[in-house]
Structure of Condensation domain-containing protein:
Amino acid sequence: METKKDKLKSLSREQLAGLITKSKDSKKRDIERVARTSNAFSQSFSQQRQWFMEQFMNGGVFNVPQSYLLKGDIKLDILEDVLNAVVEKHESLRTVFNTIDYIPSQIIKPYERFRLDIIHLEEYDGAMRDAKIREVNSEIARRPFDLTVGPLWRFYVLRLSAEEIVLTLSLHHIICDGWSFGVIMNEIAGGYRDRLHGQVARSLLQVQYVDYSEWHRKRIEGGQLDDQLEYWIGKLKDAPKAIHLPYDYKRGSTQTYRGRTEYFLIEKEAVKAMSDRCMQMNGSMYHMMMSALTLLMHGYSLDNKLCIGTPVANRNQLELEKLIGLFINTVVIQSEIAGSMTFAELFTQVRDHCMEAFNHAEIPFEQVVTGLDIERQMQHSPVFQVLYVQTEESMLSVSIPGIEVEVLPVSVETAQFDLSLYATILKNGISAGFEYNTDLFAQDTILQMIEDFKLLIQLITENPDRTIGEFVSSLSRKKVVMTVVSSFESGPVGEPMEFWLDKLRIDYKLQFAPYSQMFQQLIDDTGLLCRSSQGIGILLLRLEDWIQGMDAKDARLAAVLTDNANRFIQCASSFVNKHQSKVILYLCPASDKVNQMTEAKRLIQQSEQKIAAECAKNGNISVLHGDEIAVKYKLSEFNDGLGDEEGHVPYLREYYTAMGTELVMSIYNTAMQSTG
């Protein structure tokens, strides 16, 4: 999450003035305490989403753990008293969830004193002790909760010695967020300190979570956040459905949540260089990390439009800052990237989009998804599949008299998204980790991704004015973008191509330009083919498409074919020479209808021979002959007259399969030759 400090550092004078005005206005929106005539209340919109998701995938997916190593004169009886006081004080820790009269509700239970669970690990030492701590913490973190019964938290002490313990907290996300752990630890520190001095003050909260949820629900249902909803619908209406990362395993029919995290450290010197660049570019470390991740995702996916999710604290009211509960919301940072733009330009774009997003962050993400009216996919999360989360060391650190406190990582072995980057800004560097879905990525891929990310950090801080294309070329894992341009509907060739590309483990992005745009795609620098010129262009050309609607006896037939053939040779050669691109030209066989017209057939064959001969002279153009491929696969009948007439789909499935297979074999052989 971007901190308030980061936000303020990147604001202009006009934006600061607007923020002050907005802050004054927000104080007028005081949250009123809801009457406690009942212990049941409507769920907040965020809780509703969690409740809904939990019905489909329990098993600890939404558990939020945190673990702390405590060293010193630790009084466990005081620690137990303090934790009891926290639970008594915060209604969210005494809340369970169920439906009442078919309405999803949150139900506040009365406080009951509990005993602190203690696990004895004194017999372990050294590496065995560290391994045992990880094992126990992982088991605690993964253990599911029953939302209808509660409690929805677990507090454990792992006793290592008389002066060393691990305090492990595991809470369900429906009652807490990352900020909440700072609240919990500050309450523990303050309560522990008071009890050491004989003070046991019972402070009350004027506002609890249910007061916020009722207030926020009224704001949404009253239309006060409609402008934010309209902003997001306008912003994301053309967002891509999914990112095209180089997954190691095929995505299943439903989303899975098995995961793992690989940790790494960005050293202090590198962070200092990043910070200096941030100041020069009028941005924050948050903007730098988000921009670097966006660049990495572009390099791995070759997508020119990217959506990355990021959480916002959403605690704009002063009284919310000291509450435990689910306030966090997710916003989407959408970027549009071209290989010719510089990283500095990308940084500015990301920074500005972040500031816009955070100014429209109160409307729940689920409301945005509903408003977009997009088709829900069971295979992946909507709108974005990559998440970035940033925290500050100050949010995790806490001071307890006579006790040293150190944060310990906890492995939950789950992943809510395809890929998430978690980063904590420390005094001596950045502690980070890529959490990834193990049903999609192999460990080696993520480890290489870490090296590529660290390399990009180094390169962009050295010279942010280099182009995106230059940065992408430095990545170790290359993805081949293949752009199909055809004179007819070529979509059916995609399935066999994808089959063989996966079989041969080629990292690829396969995309199709609208058909009947052959010349336009070759000459238009804004077209899909030119924008992806560093990949492989696949031109599927059936010459009879140039003379559609012309009579076979028309005197213009020869002139049109000759003129278009000459023009095609010139355009294809110019495109290849200009962009130094690799192109596969596939000369597709004529229809049965044309093959019965002697003169038309002769003219088409004549033009084909000329195109093939001239294009073959260019070393970057490979020519495949569709008639020969039909013979190779023993396809005596392959034309689809009805499909051609109704949808410009001229071939049977068997021929599209043969075509796709030969195209991939040509690509594979070219790749093998280029690697020696």
In short: The radius of gyration is 30 Å. The mean pLDDT is 90. The longest strand covers residues 63-72. DSSP finds 24 helices and 19 strands in the chain.
